[in-house]
Specification:
By secondary structure, the chain is α/β, with parallel strands linked by helices. The chain folds into two domains: 53 residues, 2-Layer Sandwich (Nucleotidyltransferase, domain 5); 199 residues, Exopolyphosphatase. Domain 2 (Nucleotidyltransferase, domain 5, 2-Layer Sandwich). 54% of the residues lie in helices and 14% in strands. The strands form two sheets. The protein has a six-stranded mixed sheet with strand order 5-4-3-6-8-7, with helices on both faces. Strands 1-2 form a two-stranded parallel sheet.
Length: 271
C-alpha cells in the first residue's frame, strides 16, 4: 500500500504539470476483494489528487474487449479473450459478427492471478506436480463457464478467435519468436500457432529461476510470477483447445483511453 501510494503521488505530480482535461482512474480485483480496499482507495485518492473508481469485473472485461477489438478479423464469429492479472483472471466471450461494435455475451472472473498464486503457493509452480495441480484447479473453475456458453462446441464449428492480453502471453510470444529483447511492435497482434506457444511454454518451464531471471524478455523482478501465469494459461489451453492464439499487448488502460475518446466525440445535448 505504501509503494502504491508513493507511485500514485508521483503520477499525480506529473499530471499537475500538464494541461490535462480529464483523468480516468480505476481499481480492479485487489480493491474489490480486500477487506481494507475502501481505506486504501481513500489513501490513494489523497496521494493521486483525483477520484479512483473501483470497477466491477464485467466492466473490466468490457474495457479489455474494447482495447482488443481492432485485432478482430472479418471472418471471426466469436472471440474468447482472457486477461491473466495479478489478483484475478478474466474471461470474456464475445460476439463479433452482428454489428460494427463487438458485444460481450458473457464473462467470468476467477479470483486466481499471478500474485494470488504466488502468495498462496509460493514456489509450487516450479515443480511439475505443483504446476499440474494449479492447472487442474483453474481448469475446473472454467468448465462451468464453458458449459453455459458451449464454447468448445463453437470452436469446433470454426470462426472463434482465442486472444490473450497479459504479461504471460506476451512473454510466451517473446520466447516463441526468440526475441533478443521485448518488442511491443513485434508482439502486439501477432498470431501465434498453438504448437509454437506450447514449445514456448515448455521452454519457460525448463529454464529454472536463474534462466528466467537472465532472459531479456523476463528479468529478475518477474521470476516468481511467470510460471503461475503459465499454469493459468495452460488451464485455458486445456479447456479451450484452439488452433492458435492472438497476442495482445493492450488491455484495461487502452480500453479506458478508447472509451474516453469516443465520449469526447459524442455530440453534447443542446450543442
Amino acid at each position: 500500500m505504501d509503494r502504491a501510494e508513493a507511485a500514485l503521488e508521483a503520477c499525480g505530480q506529473k499530471l499537475a504539470r500538464r494541461p490535462v482535461q480529464a483523468v480516468h482512474a480505476v481499481a480492479t480485483e485487489a480493491c474489490r476483494r480486500a477487506t481494507n480496499g475502501r481505506r486504501f482507495i481513500q489513501r490513494a485518492e489523497r496521494a493521486f489528487g483525483a477520484p479512483i473508481r473501483v470497477i466491477p469485473a464485467r466492466e473490466e472485461a468490457e474495457l479489455a474487449m474494447e482495447s482488443c477489438a481492432p485485432l478482430f478479423r472479418p471472418q471471426d464469429r466469436r472471440a474468447l479473450l482472457f486477461d491473466i492479472g495479478g489478483g484475478s483472471t478474466e474471461i470474456a466471450w464475445i460476439r463479433t459478427d452482428e454489428s460494427e461494435r463487438p458485444r460481450l455475451i458473457g464473462t467470468i472472473s476467477v479470483p486466481l492471478g499471478v500474485v494470488t498464486l504466488v502468495e498462496r503457493d509460493g514456489a509450487a509452480c516450479f515443480a511439475g506436480e505443483g504446476f499440474d495441480r494449479v492447472v487442474e484447479e483453474v481448469a475446473t473453475r472454467f468448465e462451468a463457464f464453458d458449459s453455459v456458453h458451449c464454447i468448445r462446441q463453437e470452436m469446433r464449428a470454426g470462426g472463434v478467435r482465442l486472444m490473450g492480453t497479459s504479461g504471460t502471453v506476451t512473454t510466451l510470444a517473446g520466447i516463441a519468436l526468440d526475441l533478443p529483447r521485448y518488442s511491443r511492435a513485434a508482439i502486439d497482434g501477432h498470431d501465434l500457432e498453438m504448437g509454437c506457444a506450447d514449445r514456448a511454454l515448455e521452454a519457460l518451464r525448463s529454464m529454472g529461476r536463474e534462466g528466467l531471471a537472465a532472459h531479456p524478455c523476463i528479468g529478475p523482478e518477474r521470476v516468481d510470477f511467470v510460471l503461475p501465469g503459465c499454469a493459468i494459461y495452460a488451464a485455458i489451453r486445456k479447456v479451450w483447445p484452439a488452433a492458435g492464439l492472438t497476442v495482445c499487448d493492450r488491455g484495461l488502460r487502452e480500453g479506458l483511453l478508447l472509451r474516453a475518446m469516443r465520449e469526447r466525440r459524442r455530440p453534447r445535448r443542446g450543442g
